[in-house]
Design goal:
A: mainly beta, 12 strands, B: mainly beta, four-stranded antiparallel β-sheet, about 55% strand
């Protein structure tokens, strides 16, 4: 069965420091992986995706993610965090039936001034 | 483009009442989805549709029904609401090629 895990419920970072939000996956075959962000009382916004190709994927708002096949990980990163990056972040894997998404439980990112 | 819209934004139901949540998209997407979001559980797929007139069950379909009579609309029905259906409901859509899903703003449903 396919699954996505986000091992941290919350990540705290000081503004200006690099941030990492972790994601691991269990998928048979080639994984299609996504990161979404949710601001309070809003829907989910797409950040980036890995389909194939370069292991470092660049996305919106300065975020990037590193795909590591041997570690089955897809960690989200940003070199310098902003207070406005504080939000809930979801990692997801594409299901082959109907192109639906399997989501992790989410990681709350708090960036302090 | 409005993207994905959802109606209503908020609703309070009593146990046993029924309601329909409406999702509309103006991107000509083939695929549409209903998810529910509960604290600490991420988003879970309720039902989905791969095209007009077709629907399929997701991982938590019990207590819900759906219809896709028009390509741009995807309706989620609760025939007899239960407190366990208190949640935030999100609709999403995607095209055949892009795979990334576009989400609506959500409907916050409380069943008392």
């Amino acid at each position: 069965a396919q699954s996505v895990a986000q091992p941290e419920d919350q990540v705290n970072v000081a503004e200006g420091n690099p941030l990492t939000v972790k994601c691991t996956y269990s998928v048979s075959g080639n994984p299609y992986l996504f990161w979404y962000v949710q601001y309070p009382n809003r829907g989910l916004q797409f950040l980036l995706k890995y389909i194939t190709g370069d292991n470092l994927v660049k996305g919106s708002y300065g975020f990037e993610a590193e795909f590591n096949k041997s570690q089955t990980s897809f960690h989200l990163k940003k070199p310098s965090a902003l207070v406005s990056d504080s939000a809930l972040y979801f990692c997801a894997a594409l299901r082959y039936s109907g192109y639906a998404l399997n989501f992790g439980k989410g990681t709350s990112l708090l960036v302090t001034p | 483009n409005a993207g994905v819209t959802q109606t209503p934004k908020f609703r309070v139901l009593k146990t046993g009442q029924s309601m329909t949540l409406l999702c509309a998209q103006d991107m000509n997407h083939e695929y549409m989805y209903w998810y529910r979001q509960d604290p600490g559980m991420g988003l879970r797929l309720i039902h989905y549709s791969v095209g007009e007139g077709t629907t399929a069950k997701g991982e938590v379909p019990d207590g819900y029904n759906v219809s896709r009579l028009k390509k741009q609309n995807f309706l989620l029905g609760l025939e007899s609401a239960a407190p366990s259906q208190t949640s935030v409901y999100f609709c999403a859509s995607t095209g055949t090629n892009s795979k990334e899903q576009y989400f609506g703003p959500g409907t916050r449903l409380t069943v008392t």
